[in-house]
Amino acid sequence: MTTTQSRSADGAPSETRPKKRSGWLGFVLIGLAAFLVVAGLLFQIWAPDQLKRAPIDTDEVTELEGVALLPANFAEPSNLEQVDIRVYQGTTSDTDKSDDDVAVYDEYTCLLRDEGELDGCVDAEDPEGRLVTADLDRYATDRRTGEAVNDVEYVGEDAIPHTGLINKWPFDVEKKSYEMWDGVVGDSVEAKFVEESTLKGLDVYVFETDVTAEDVNILPDIPGTYINQATWYVDPVTGSIVGKKEHQERLLGGDTLVLNLDFEFTDAEYAQKVDDAKSNIQLLNLVTTILPIVFYVAGALCLVAGLLLMRRRRRAA
């Protein structure tokens, strides 16, 4: 630190310390400390509510694979044959209809015979006849809780009313039962918490649904008995579904089997969902934990430095 010289009454040089510089620098550091503490509080208290919302720019296709017993002709469901199957579930956000609180989605699900080259759904005119079933759905959910929202302003007047969770669990999942939408039943069913587990290095909560419903449409306009047992692997931090296994049976007259399905996420789908969940967890931890700590520590250091400079100024005075 430099000093300046002045002359005393007898003409001898005397030193004058730069008191003004240390004074204003101390005020700046104290002000910076206050700013950093406020920033830390904002990241810790305000940011989580902003981040813990389902996105409204979703455009993804989830792929599942497995085996099934299928009839050659659903009009005469007999002589079931075992075939490989593939399921594509595409989910796209309606960004224009979504807002800060509600996310609106259009979703399709198609079940195919896994034959030939497949990279997505095929239509009913597929020359190889691979399409087994296809369903379209439009729904809205609360962006924080994942619960269905049925307001006409979001889904329109013709949408089927939904209940419970649909495409994800809430953020900060609890070890309890949740109500989960089942489109075949047309109502929500109980998803029971089973255990904690790990999936490809990610801590997950495991839930199970077990459904038997009679007199529901097991095929378009064809009523029958529907049996479904599913296992869901859920990231407890973000509520995202990172894995699913499902066994399904559909029967005519209570005893004539027309569909027997066993399928789950493909290996690539498991890996992608887990990687996405890990990235989202890291982002949440960075914003809600690491950055506040950094701001608090930096703020404390600035405060201490500022007070020391102010104290030094007062002593020099």
Number of domains: 2
Shape designation: elongated
Q: Largest beta sheet, briefly? A: 11 strands, antiparallel
The low-confidence runs, each spanning 5 or more residues with pLDDT under 50, are 1-16
Mean pLDDT: 88
Distance between the termini: 17 Å
The fraction of residues assigned to DSSP E strands is 35-45%
Structural class: alpha+beta
Order of helices and strands: EEHEEEEEHEEEEEEH
Tell me the radius of gyration: 31 Å
Helix content: 25-40%
Strand order in space, largest sheet: 7-6-5-4-3-13-12-11-10-9-8
Number of strands: 13
Distinct helical segment count: 3
Organism: Nocardioides caricicola
InterPro entries: PorA
Transmembrane segments: 24-46, 283-309
Protein name: DUF3068 domain-containing protein
Describe the 3D structure.
This protein is α+β, with helices and mostly antiparallel strands and 317 residues long. The chain folds into two domains: 15-49 and 287-316; 53-265, no CATH class. It contains three helices and 13 strands, in the order ββαβββββαββββββα. It has helices spanning 19-51, 152-155, 267-316, and strands at residues 4-7, 13-16, 59-70, 81-93, 102-113, 131-142, 148-149, 178-182, 187-199, 202-219, 222-234, 241-252, 256-265. The strands form two sheets. An eleven-stranded antiparallel beta sheet has the order 7-6-5-4-3-13-12-11-10-9-8. Strand 9 (187-199) and strand 10 (202-219) form a beta hairpin. Helix 1 (19-51) packs antiparallel against helix 3. The chain is elongated. The model is unreliable at 1-16 (pLDDT under 50). InterPro entries: PorA. This is DUF3068 domain-containing protein. The chain crosses the membrane at residues 24-46, 283-309. Keywords: Membrane, Transmembrane, Transmembrane helix.
